[in-house]
Amino acid sequence: MRDIPPLNALRVFESVARLKSFSKAAEELHVSQSAVSRQISLLETYLEVQFFHRDRAGIRLTEVGQQYFDGIRPAFERIVIATRGLTAQVDDEPLRIRVYSTFAARWLMHRLPKMQKAHPDLRIRITTAVAPVDFGAEKVDASIQLGRGEWEGLDSQFLFSDEMRPVCKPKLIAGMPTGRKPEDVLKHRLIHSYYRKQDWPEWMASAGLEYSIEEDPFMLPSSLLAYQAAQDGLGIAMAQTRMVEQELRAGTLVYFCEHTLTRDLGYYLVTQPDSPRESKLTLFRQWLVEQIG
Q1: Separation CA 97–CA 231 (nearest Å)
Q2: 161-265, what's its fold?
Q3: Can you tell me which residues the record assigns to a coiled coil (predicted)?
Q4: SS in 3 state form for 43-102?
């Protein structure tokens, strides 16, 4: 005797027997009523029995159908209990967000206390990396990434554009006339970030200036260090304007000139479709958009 019938058909049978209706089972399972009927016929043919009496009043279980339903119902109930327990455990875990270190330190971290106040049950665990996210290989619920919003098979929420403008210590421009031009940056040391090597060349090109990175540039491992070097008076750094908002408000950094480059790239919140953490991701997504707005 074959011990395990087709599981999809078995699931359909459990739903029909429990609800005592083909139409209600179809609604619960999000399939057509004819699909439910096909699965029941498949199961009856497979087991060589008849599970339901069909008449004008509706359907009712045969004696063997009732016996079979009584036998499998506890198994389905245990599955429901186990699934609810697992879901509750997953829901209780922190939301795992993967970001660039500069984004975390300069934009996200100092805003998190506001989020904790607004959503005390929403816990966040931050990890940092530069490489594109791989949801299949990493235990991550969402990633904030720079790009054009084109990640195949993933959902993306636009946050803000990649806008660049040179910044420096206020003392560096003390005594200089207002209305400084882009070419005036060439009179000073330019601070480069290793992972954003093209920022200076692209900004220069957008200002109509010819420029190539010198043979031995003042290159630092990250934008975080580049901004710090500018604060310490070591030169001019090319800043992502959203990442230096606190320093500009505090006056520890100032814009060197007015010229700004907005690239055709932006920061996006990238997630998997139909994530089991979708309810918490929705809260986090809405909070991010509120902060940006």
Answers
A1: 29
A2: D-Maltodextrin-Binding Protein; domain 2 (3.40.190)
A3: none
A4: HHHHHCCCCEEEECCEEEECHHHHHHHHHHHHHHHHHHHHHHHHHHHHHHCCEEEEECHH
Give the integer Cα–Cα distance in Å for 48 and 40. Answer: 12
Q: What is the pLDDT of residues 63-105, one digit of tens each?
A: 999 999 999 998 888 887 777 666 655 566 899 999 999 999 9
pTM: 0.69
Q: Per-residue pLDDT tens for 97-156?
A: 999 999 999 999 999 999 999 899 899 999 999 998 998 888 899 999 999 999 999 999
**Residues 6 or more apart whose Cβ sits within 8 Å of residue 59:** 16, 20, 21, 22, 52, 53
Domain boundaries, the chain: 7-92, 161-265
Q: Are 244 and 106 a contacting pair, CB within 8 Å?
A: yes
Measured distance between the N- and C-terminal CA atoms of the chain, rounded to whole angstroms: 65
- 3-state class (DSSP) for residue 159: strand
The residue type of 280 is K
The CATH number of the structural domain formed by 7-92 is 1.10.10.10
Strand partners, 125: 96
Q: Which ranges of 138-191 would DSSP assign to H, the alpha helix?
A: 170-173
